Amino acid sequence: MMLVSGDGKLARALVNLSSDDLQVIKLPKKVMDITDEYEVSETIKRYMTQPNYPKYFVHTAALTKPMSINDRNPIMSLSTNIVGTANVAKICHKYGIKFIYISTDFVYDSIDGVDEDSGLKPSNNYGWSKLGGECVTKLIPESLILRCSLCDIPFRHKVAFDDVYRNSIIHSDVAKIILKVKDEIGVINIGDKYQSVYNFVSQYQEVNKASGVNIAPSLSLNTEKLEKLINE
Ligand SMILES: NC(=O)c1ccc[n+]([C@@H]2O[C@H](COP(=O)([O-])OP(=O)(O)OC[C@H]3O[C@@H](n4cnc5c(N)ncnc54)[C@H](OP(=O)(O)O)[C@@H]3O)[C@@H](O)[C@H]2O)c1
């Protein structure tokens, strides 16, 4: 069994891949609020009593959108993305459940070809809170951090930047990758082809072009480690 925190887009994409070989169960906030250490402990303990007890936990729950919510509510950001991650990680460690933390490419400092060992320096509270979650995860032996370049489709904006380049990837592709790399340890960058955000979004829906160089940085992710693992 694989447990997944939250009921967001990635949690749902993982549940869609549930099979007889690996049952995937999501835990929405109303079932398990990650900021409530007791509730986290009791919920996961209940699953451990089942014959098909959980071997993996994918921690997708986070204070995410809009990213600025983390700037406006720094304590909620800390409680959810750092303390909430610690609540889940500690219980997973206690029961020997593999802890997989979903991070973001927003933790990186540089913009060109960042690999898993590149410098980290987030530019906003969301990035810092996700890096805080990475620090928590680093203390859990045999855990896995996935730095994803996820982009929401449907795209919520009327325009997409044609001069901002990223390795954007959709949730369902990341879910498939998670199932392939779930036994790995350490940090892995997860992204698709390096292309403009406009080109990426245009594959899925109509959107207008706009310039965004002064709003959002381009960032190219080195995904060689991922490619090697997937082609093994
Ligand atoms: N989408 C992106 O652009 C992107 C990019 C890179 C990395 N990521 C990371 O990837 C992961 C999954 O992203 P996503 O796009 O699937 O996010 P999402 O759709 O925004 O889902 C986030 C989920 O977390 C839940 N949550 C928030 N606070 C919670 C709490 N206290 N207890 C339990 N659940 C709580 C939310 O529940 P409520 O809705 O009920 O509050 C929601 O179901 C996140 O960790 C995110 O940081 C996302």
Fold and architecture overview:
By secondary structure, the protein is of the alpha/beta class. 36% of the residues lie in helices and 17% in strands. The chain has one domain (2-152, 168-191): Rossmann fold (3-Layer(aba) Sandwich). The strands form three sheets. A six-stranded parallel sheet has the order 2-1-3-4-5-8, with helices on both faces. It has a two-stranded parallel sheet with strand order 6-10. A two-stranded antiparallel sheet has the order 7-9. Helix 1 crosses helix 6 (171-181), helix 2 (37-48) packs parallel to helix 4 (74-95) and helix 4 runs parallel beside helix 5 (125-138). The longest helix has 22 residues, at 74-95. The relative contact order is 0.14.
